[in-house]
Amino acid sequence: MKPAILLLSIVPLLGCDVTPEWPATADQWERYTDSLSAVSLEYPAQCTIDENAGGTLIRYDGAPIIAISHMTEAQAKKHGLWAAHESVDTCRLGGRDGKLYRYDHYDVFLGMHTVSYVVEHEGKWMALELRMKGDAPGPVQRRVIESFAFAASDNGGS
Q: For the CA atoms of the chain, what is the radius of gyration?
């Protein structure tokens, strides 16, 4: 393929918004518990869980709508997550005070609007990241946020 043709095929992808859709409603819910970071939350039953070394993704129709990560600020910056941006407000997550971030997270040229709730946890930062259109959580997103909990035995950061 000639370089000019290759460039023209890539240009439309620059800055492409691929923010996933969420289920409009959820009649059934599941509870996910991350045994490594001792957190749990409810998510719509029609979603799937994708655990990896960097955290957990909860997917709807194959697209990541929720990301749970437990990392240092340097690790978060390296991955282009919340730490690479300015917080826009305070928040409350799992009974803890934290910071709220709103930004577009890019993987190469593909961007997803992200709202991150970040609190201290075991000497690192716990982030609940919602990949969603707009900044205001709807009923499904609110239930996910409100259900987020730390293990009862964990007192750190409370």
A: 17
Alpha helices in the chain (DSSP H): 3-10, 73-78, 139-147
Rounded alpha-carbon distances, angstroms, from residue 156 to 6, 59, 125: 52, 29, 12
Which residues have a Cβ under 8 Å from the Cβ of 57 and sit 6 or more positions away? 49, 50, 64, 66, 67
CATH superfamily label, 15-150: Mog1/PsbP, alpha/beta/alpha sandwich (3.40.1000.10)
Task: State the virtual CA torsion across 101, 36, 33, 23 in degrees, nearest 10.
Answer: 40
pLDDT tens-digit series, residues 63-95: 999 999 999 999 999 988 899 999 999 999 999
Q: pLDDT by residue (tens digit) across 17-64?
A: 778 889 888 999 999 998 788 899 999 999 999 998 778 999 999 999
